[in-house]
Amino acid sequence: MDLTLQFVPYNEIESLSSIGRIKKLIHLVKEDKIILLEGRLRKDEETELIKTTMELIDEDFRGLEIGVFYSDQQYGDIIKRLRATFVNMLMGDRIGLTVIGPASIIKEIKRDPSKFQLLAHAPKTPRKKAKPKRKR
Amino acid sequence: MLQIIQKFINKVFKDLFKTRKHIKLGLYGPPNGGKTTLANRICMDWLGEEMGTVSHVEHETREIQVKEQVNITSGRKELSFNLVDTPGIATKIDYEDFMKKGLSEREAKKRAKEATKGVIDAIKWLDDMDVVIVVLDGTKDPYSQVNITIIGNLAARDIPVLIVANKADLKKADVKKVEAAFPQYDVVGISAKYGQGIDKFYEGLFVMAGK
Fold it and tell me: pTM here?
């Protein structure tokens, strides 16, 4: 199975409403794409994304995995935190990176403050058909 | 005239105190963190009865459960609240995971459907909460996006939060890691199953409720 990573620049979702953003992201996930979104959703949009995902879950769509990575002002010394707060004020939700992908492909997104790991499911290999025995 | 003003001020403070005294306290967190085990512990300690069933299979709680008027005391302090146990919040639900835990396909699909509805309800109820205890499995990675999203949402809504790192009785539990992940919040390490750290947890509740 081919794995598709799709980069979505922030300006592609900037003018959309919250519902529009969520619909667009879920549409891409349902196409089995892993999205690398520039920036991040708002907190209320993140919960709305979870809610909408739950409404769509069925036998084919099992949900999604999401990981948001950005420089948080809660870490580091006071200067680092002030700098991060200032950057956040200037850039808003444009800073950072959000990874979203289908749960059928992404097993887990592990993170700690400085790095993240994306663990994918092992591809299901089709069973080999047994070769018919030759008749002598 | 002074007496009237004094009475008015007393009434306002009394009313404020009264509303604060009877709060809606929600238990939130990912599935299998131990929300219902903690709810049972609180209810057993103060009401003498359990609240819900627990299971090793995820999404055992699939409906919001409310226990009204739980009164807890500590010395002269008293706190009365409605305890709200919510289904675990997740971004994915796969019925095949339930089948791996021994459920039939029919049961697994039914459980998955109910679990998705449970997550939606839990999110809808967020707005109604006065204070929230986020129950995390202390043996698991605290940096999961679901944890961050729940806590971030509560912060955005100005809802006071107490984080519980549950399953502290297990060797794999790492309360310090949970503290490091959420440095701006109070974190209490407990074992809801065995009652370890539960007194500290109740103290934390009083602090959070402003007592």
Answer: 0.84
